[in-house]
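Troubleshooting: if your tokenizer reports a length mismatch, compare your output against this known-good record of 280 residues.
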Amino acid sequence: MATTTTPLPAVAIDHRGHSTTRNLRTVGMVWTRELIRLRRMPTRIISGIAQPLLFLIVLGAGLKNLVGGQSLPGGVSYQVYIFPGILAMSIITSALFSAVAIVWDREFGFMREMLVAPVSRTSLVLGKAVGGGSVAVVQGLILIVFAPLIGVDLTVARVLGMIGSLLLLAFALTAFGIVLASRMERMESFQMVMALVMQPMMFLSGAMFPLQGLPTWLGVLCRLNPATYGVDLARRTLLGSDFALTIGDWVVPVWFDVAVILGIGTAMLAVAVRLFNTIE
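Known-good structure output:
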């Protein structure tokens, strides 16, 4: 008696689903690796906090009598005025230097192992961006505990708004740092480029001085600096709308700050992905 066999129905394998899951896991693992690196290097946290505190305590105390409260909106003290800028400077420094891990991994061969893994390079870039941004925000949040000591009034809404603004700034600058690091092969070259980029970005952001009444050329440079909008967002979150950035007679709205930072971060992330795809 002949037996007939019924063919089993074809099972469609959703490779896209497996690929998406694998890439999401990659983002999570790269992010976790950055956090583990931070935990194993406590000196990184100390150094990331020491410089902002030096500016806040030494420079702020030294100049607060020269920069009188009458010359600042609302008559606030100089230390209160620069505190949001100090937080932003901490984010700028940490976010840009978090990309040093890319150069480090390339020198020691770990980058090659990641690039040959069966995952998209976009997930590697996203993991680096999320990890570096998270580390930067952690260091910035530690500084918030010093706010009441200098007279900054903190509320839950202000703290949450500050966290959001720091996350945006960290995302944009970490992506920018990844773009720079992806073209560097030596640690010495990366450090030199970072010094050339970081110092002008910090001091032209309005973190340390008001942008009103500046020479025209200096005012234009400050307003072309992407970090200026991150500092403005942080300052308005903590101190209110009296400290809003202006371009001519136009008061820059909060949504414009957010759009500039998010747009630059997205563009830098796209460039970083493109550069990673060219790395052999």
